Amino acid sequence: MATLQELWELFSTRQGEFWQVMWQHVHMSVVALLFAVLIAVPLGIILTRKQKLAEPIIGVAAVLQTIPSLALLGFMILLLNQIGTLPAVVALTAYALLPILRNTYTGIQGVDPSIQEAAVGMGMSSFRKLRKIELPMAMPIIMAGVRTSMVLIVGTATLAALISAGGLGDFIMTGIDRANNAYILLGALPAALLALFFDFILRMTEKRSQGKTLAPILAVLGLSVAIALAPLFSFAQQPQITIGGKITAEPEIIANMYKHLIEEETDLMVDVRTGMGSTDIAFNALQSDDVDVYLEFTGTALTTLLNQTPEPGTTEEEVYEQARTGLMEEYDLAYLEPMAFNNTYALAVRGETAEELGIETISDMETYRDQLTAGFTFEFADREDGYIGLQDIYGFSFENVETMDSGLRTRALTTEQVDFIDAFSTSADIIEYDLALMEDDENLFPPYQGAPLMKQETLEEYPELEEPLNRLGGMITDEEMQEMNYKVEYDDEDPYDVAEEYLQSVDLL
């Protein structure tokens, strides 16, 4: 468990990033609450007038809240065809509707009928009765629903980091990926405190609403609108190019190298958005123009994006050319020059286990297939160049296979919950935990050289991008990449600084 000193040291070195993601979290949460209030309160009022619709509509809101939040985020990506803040806010809004809708309906329905009749007897119109009697009297109950929704939103918003929407979840996902409790706490503790803070503010507002006025809900709406519109008044120079990257240190390091090179050699401003949860999310972000460039590996481009399986033993040059041609023909994407390092898949076993069993190749593992427990990522377990292909090429499967998040598999291996895992050949975990990589003696895994992927139209609009992005072509060895990954993951150095240090060492900066 991380000590308070470790947490404080991490906060001290990541202050700038911390306040940035804190603002992203607050902004995203408040915007979602604003939309939830603007939808649920009027709808709740309408349902008190159309009571036959109340049960089915509140039921739909209840169903939305029962959908797992991560699944709802994924559905919004598909529905809106983009990643980032918009699908996150839409999902959070849907998630927050039920408490506000139900409390608005229940609060107005609970107004004393004799008071309602007296208002009608005084000649009040339906709207005047709503404004003067029903809403003010129901306000404490409505505000209780708003409080509940706010806490739900703040907690759920941490998952938005998986779709590159930012927020405190960035630290949590980094911590899970690196098995670093300090990062997890740096995201989780402020999220919990933020939820308590908002709950306190809204509780104070709720107490004020005992005075039977509309002021509390109007104050919440006014503050929410102010926070939602705040980015419109930012005078900071906006980036012209956005470089994306998947989860793990490696894409973040390379993305920052691209940023350094582009800003050094052109007049373009570059933003880096990493932490995208999977290949599909990163590729969808590119297609929907949420990012302009991202690092993709040749083997992944060929097998996942083009659904082509290279023959075992296909060379690095052949895989790249096949991927480059296919991406241009099928998607009109430009795939620029690949780097030298080959971050291919491998099966990693604890060093002592490999020595004890005398296994050095994947074929050697067949003898122990009923004894060894595998720990695979969800993506590897479902890939043709992963476990599916392994069963086909090697002709055997493992009796016990556990699937898990990529950030958990190394910990599962080192704590002996599994016996081997899928790994990348440039992973820093190999050094840190003395892992033994099984030789791919049937050449199942294709080459995985990283190269920048972008739309052809983007390259035509910004032709000056090609030269700096190609600077890294043929550079960075496996050992250099592994060392840089180690600096970020275990020495906790900033990917921006690690990228800058390497570029200076090879005279590119």
From TrEMBL:
Q: Which domain of life is it from?
A: Bacteria
> What keywords does the record list, in alphabetical order?
Membrane, Transmembrane, Transmembrane helix, Transport
InterPro entries cross-referenced by the UniProt entry = ABC_Gly_betaine_transp_sub-bd (IPR007210), ABC_transp_perm/SBD (IPR051204), EgtUBC_SBD (IPR058089), MetI-like (IPR000515), MetI-like_sf (IPR035906)
First-listed, main subcellular location of the protein, grouped into a coarse class? membrane
Record field: transmembrane: 26-45, 57-77, 83-101, 138-163, 183-202, 214-233
Cellular location of this protein?
A: Cell membrane; Membrane
- Which residue numbers delimit the ABC transmembrane type-1 domain? 22-202
Query: By its UniProt entry, which Gene3D superfamilies does this protein fall under?
Result: MetI-like, Osmoprotection protein (prox), domain 2, Periplasmic binding protein-like II
Q: How does it sit in the membrane?
A: Multi-pass membrane protein
**Which terms does the record give in the GO molecular function aspect?**
transmembrane transporter activity
Q: So which residues are the signal peptide here? A: none
* Gene Ontology CC, one term: ATP-binding cassette (ABC) transporter complex
Family, per the entry? In the N-terminal section; belongs to the binding-protein-dependent transport system permease family.
| Family annotation (PANTHER family) | GLYCINE BETAINE/L-PROLINE TRANSPORT SYSTEM PERMEASE PROTEIN PROW, OSMOPROTECTANT IMPORT PERMEASE PROTEIN OSMW
Name under which the protein is recorded: Osmoprotectant transport system permease protein
Native source species: Sinobaca qinghaiensis
Q: What lineage is this protein's organism placed in?
A: Bacteria, Bacillati, Bacillota, Bacilli, Bacillales
